[in-house]
Amino acid sequence: MNPTMKSPFKLPPGTVIQGKWHQEMYRIKKELGYGANGTVYLAETSGHLAVAIKLSTETSIVASEVNVLKALAKVQGSALGPSLYDVDDWEVKGISIPFYSMEYIKGKDMMGFIQERGSSWIMVLIIQLLKDLHELHQLGWVFGDLKPENLMISGPPPRIRCVDVGGTTQIGRSIKEFTEFYDRGYWGLGSRKAEPSYDLFAVVMVILTLYYGGRFEKKGDSFSLIRKKIEGINELKPFEPILIKAIKGEFQSAFEMRKALLECKSYKQAAVTANSSGIINNNPVSHSQIQNASRYQKRKKRKVGSVLETILLVAVVAVFYTLYIVYEMVGG
């Protein structure tokens, strides 16, 4: 993508767009963003519903993106992409401009959300994202232009959503839209063929962007640079092997990467629990230590439970015995 490119459309607020076929009217409120193939605006419909409307330079581009949104709509529980509302053409000055309207996703951009809530949310959101990416891949598509700018956090509860499917490409084809920093081809670490591993490389670059608060310059050996950036974040220590594997393109699916992260996250949580219990010192924690700590905690809980049960039983017996004595005295 050329960072100096200009929006293919410049519509001032108040511009009214009317669909040629469905006659729906949209009043432009403001520009939300643009790419090589079109511009997205916030608009208000005749029913006063706020929607996002994308005008494109090519009918085929609109058709492709609409197909993606329709495919995502078939996935029960998936909220990766916005809901599709309308597809039409706008005729202006003898030119027919294809467009579609979709759900306007309210929320905070991913970078802003992390800056506000803290880095502890990054992996939580990434695990969410990988689940949605896996479903998208299962439908035969690759996201392509994956970057924080295209991701919004809605809610509560916080939910990661995509606000632009412009780079989504059918598996097997060449990625049609990308941003250099998140593109493995730019770093010389893979092709631009649309396959799950392409998105997983971008996921790692998204993680690094969020931790570093922005992108970093490409210089020297790409793999060594990215690895050093990963190693430079203490919070990523438990995840290093997984992220390196994704950079190398060694994961077969987003599901596989998500599973690895979840298992690693569980390992980290167990270590934190063990340390907070004062059982394990600050030395590196082994898997056997965590298992022993876990068994200790379970035995401790069982022991406490057993003592409580004994106390309760004694109390019940004492009450019944007291009632029996009172009854005997009254009866006597």
Task: Please give a structural write-up.
The protein is α+β, with helices and mostly antiparallel strands and 332 residues long. It is 43% helix and 18% strand. The protein has two domains: 16-103, Phosphorylase Kinase, domain 1, CATH 3.30.200; 108-276, Transferase(Phosphotransferase), domain 1, CATH 1.10.510.10. The chain has eight helices and eleven strands. A six-stranded antiparallel beta sheet has the order 1-2-3-4-6-5, covered by helices on one side. It is globular and about 75 Å long. The N and C termini lie far apart (99 Å). Mean pLDDT is 83; it is low at 273-298.
Entry keywords:
alpha+beta; Transferase(Phosphotransferase), domain 1; 2 domains; 3-stranded antiparallel β-sheet; Phosphorylase Kinase, domain 1; 332 residues
Concise synopsis of the structure shown:
The protein is of the alpha+beta class. It is built from eight helices and eleven strands.
